[in-house]
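re: the backbone from monday

yeah here it is again, tokenized this time
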């Protein structure tokens, strides 16, 4: 299981219309995959599908935060007997700001998309992924390696995704299924547009580079992979000190910065 040929395979990508999801779509199209792209924006999906022609692309416009959305995606993707070889759970939702200043429904939205929809889609598709000897890529985050004050719920959801992915990797690799947690740091995508740059620090990576690393790690049947040497170092160092120390450092780095007499308000960020 040290290689994987995407040519002719059907790959479903959530959050597939922009950012890392769009980069996955473009790279997989170049590799000869058939695509099923899921995102909220129907027009953006249609435009990307047209641009990727003659690659076969089906689109499903769906908000994964809505009840029953994962089931609707599964039914649409498998209609007429179609099967999926690889699932890329990329759709993500985050909020930045003091915990009590972010609306409760926004916190719940993060959990519903980052955890609920991801788990449900994985559960629904896993039997056919096993039959097809394919796998799943979960786009996690370097936020999953330590507490993230001012993005507390987002960090916690990504810690879940990391643990969940590595557990499934160990459980299903003897059955021929690959499971990867891809952990990027700040990436140059529209993900940060709504909350501003205060929600990220450090140099932003190119989405294309994150995808290249992810596909390489998937082919090698890795359980998880971190993009960027600095991010790998940070994840390693977080294991060498107490979690209290890590949380204090993160709080200083992530605290809203006063600018021109104002403080950056809480905001929401969306991937796909």
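seq for it, each position gets an aa:
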């Amino acid at each position: 299981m040290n290689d994987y040929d995407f040519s002719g395979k059907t790959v479903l990508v959530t959050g597939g219309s922009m950012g890392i999801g769009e980069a996955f779509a473009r790279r997989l199209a170049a590799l000869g995959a058939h695509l099923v792209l899921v995102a909220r924006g129907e027009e953006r999906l249609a435009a990307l599908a047209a641009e990727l022609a003659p690659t076969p692309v089906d689109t499903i416009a769906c908000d994964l935060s809505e009840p029953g959305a994962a089931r609707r995606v599964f039914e649409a993707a498998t209609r007429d007997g179609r099967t999926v070889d690889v699932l890329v759970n990329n759709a993500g939702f985050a909020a930045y700001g003091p915990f009590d200043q972010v609306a409760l429904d926004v916190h719940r939205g993060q959990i519903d998309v980052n955890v609920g929809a991801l788990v449900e889609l994985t559960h629904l598709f896993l039997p056919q992924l096993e039959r097809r000897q394919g796998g799943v890529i979960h786009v996690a985050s370097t936020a999953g390696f330590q507490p993230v004050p001012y993005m507390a719920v987002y960090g916690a959801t990504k810690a879940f995704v990391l643990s969940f992915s590595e557990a499934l990797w160990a459980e299903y690799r003897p059955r021929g299924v690959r499971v990867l947690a891809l952990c990027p740091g700040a990436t140059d995508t529209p993900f940060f547009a709504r909350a501003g740059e205060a929600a990220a620090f450090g140099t932003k990576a190119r989405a294309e580079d994150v995808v290249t690393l992810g596909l390489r790690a998937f082919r090698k049947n890795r359980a998880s992979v971190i993009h960027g040497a600095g991010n790998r170092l940070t994840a390693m160092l977080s294991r060498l000190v107490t979690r209290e120390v890590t949380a204090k450092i993160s709080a200083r780095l992530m605290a809203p910065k006063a600018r021109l007499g104002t403080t950056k308000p809480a905001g929401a960020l969306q991937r796909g």
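The chain has one domain: 10-271. The first strand starts at residue 10 and ends at 14.
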